[in-house]
Amino acid sequence: FEVKLKPFIQRSDGSAKGDWDVGIAIDALEYAAEVDSVVLVSGDGDFDLLVDKLRVDKGKHVDVYGVAPLTADSLARAASRFVPIEGDLLL
């Protein structure tokens, strides 16, 4: 499959933000028929609908990796398995 890169949004304070939530959702739904499972690394609760759709409607196993205190409860509950990122995996 083709990886699509979207440029970062440059903020006035000099920081940058990558906003690719819709692109991630579209890609996940587009390629769902070709995979057995999906791995999402995010804590963003906006993805709970996507994860639920992949798991329930598409029959996919969905692992969500996220920093537990920063991960929305709705996202962790929607996943087939939530894996906390902690310890040595945190920089």
Would you identify the CATH H-level superfamily?
5'-nuclease
What is the molecular shape? globular
How are the strands ordered across the major sheet? 3-4-5
**Helix-strand string:** EEHEHEHE
Class per helix and strand makeup: alpha/beta
Total beta strands: 5
Give the tally of structural domains.
1
Q: Estimate the mean pLDDT confidence.
A: 89
The top-level CATH class is Alpha Beta
Number of helices: 3
Integer-rounded radius of gyration? 14 Å
CATH architecture title: 3-Layer(aba) Sandwich
Low-confidence stretches: none
Helix share bin? 25-40%
> How big a fraction of the residues is strand?
15-25%
Distance between the termini: 30 Å
Assembly status: single chain
Model description:
By secondary structure, the chain is of the alpha/beta class. It has one domain (9-89): 5'-nuclease (Rossmann fold, 3-Layer(aba) Sandwich). 30% of the residues lie in helices and 21% in strands. It has helices at residues 21-31, 48-57, 73-78, and strands at residues 9-10, 16-17, 37-41, 61-66, 81-84. The strands form 2 sheets. The protein has a 3-stranded parallel beta sheet with strand order 3-4-5. The longest helix has 11 residues, at 21-31. The protein is globular and about 45 Å long.
